[in-house]
Amino acid sequence: MHFRTIILALIVLAIAALAALNWPALAAISAVNLGITTVQAPLGVIMLGLTLLLGIFFVAYVLSLQTSVLLETRRHNKEMQAQRELADKAEASRFTELRAVLEAQHLQGQNAVLERLDTLDARAQARSKELENSNAAYIGQLEQQLRDRRVEEHRLDDRRLDEHRIEDRGFVPPAREFP
User: Fold this and answer.
1) What are the backbone angles phi and psi of residue 33, rounded to the nearest 5°?
2) 35 phi and psi, to 5 degrees?
């Protein structure tokens, strides 16, 4: 129990004990002045009754105060629950919005990467085509040089052959001109 409750219980017990022990003095009839008139009544019983009435009003006041506090607490709890729900909805909304933003950024990044890959692929294909053309040109040049060399070798072989024939026959043919 709380300290205040213990103190109040001790006070009530002290009043009850004093009333019980001094009942003959409390019940003695005496002249009581009510302001307008004077009556013959037991002053102690009147004072004890007023104390009891004060106690009842005090208990009623405490109960009404506690009831109002409980109702106020309940109202605050409902308001807090409503505010929590609003905050949760707002937070869920922010998470949804954040997710949408992150997905948009991810999509942008992914599109940028795909565009860059396409650009790199196009460059690689163009470079491959250039290298292919360059190699084909080099091969064409080499083939041309080989053909020219073969033609030159054939001419030289023809001359040598002609020279051998001439030496064998003693005949000198007219000089041929090759382009």
Assistant:
1) -90, 120
2) 100, -45
Structure letter (DSSP) for residue 170: T
Query: Residue 32: CB partners within 8 Å, gap ≥ 6?
Result: 38, 39, 40, 41, 43, 46
Q: Using one digit for the tens of pLDDT, what is the confidence trace for 105-142?
A: 999 999 999 999 999 999 999 999 999 999 999 999 99
Q: How crowded is the C-beta side of 4, counted as CA atoms within 13 Å?
A: 1
Secondary structure of residue 178 in the 3-state scheme: coil
- Reduced to 3 states (helix: H, G, I; strand: E, B; else coil), residue 37 is coil
pLDDT at 166: 67
pTM metric for this prediction: 0.46
Contact at 8 Å (CB) between 26 and 46? no
Paired with 39 in beta bridges are 32
Two tokens, residue 85? 């729900």
% of the chain at pLDDT higher than 70: 91
CB 176 within 8 A of CB 162: no
Cα 18 to Cα 5, 45, 147: the distances in Å are 20, 12, 144
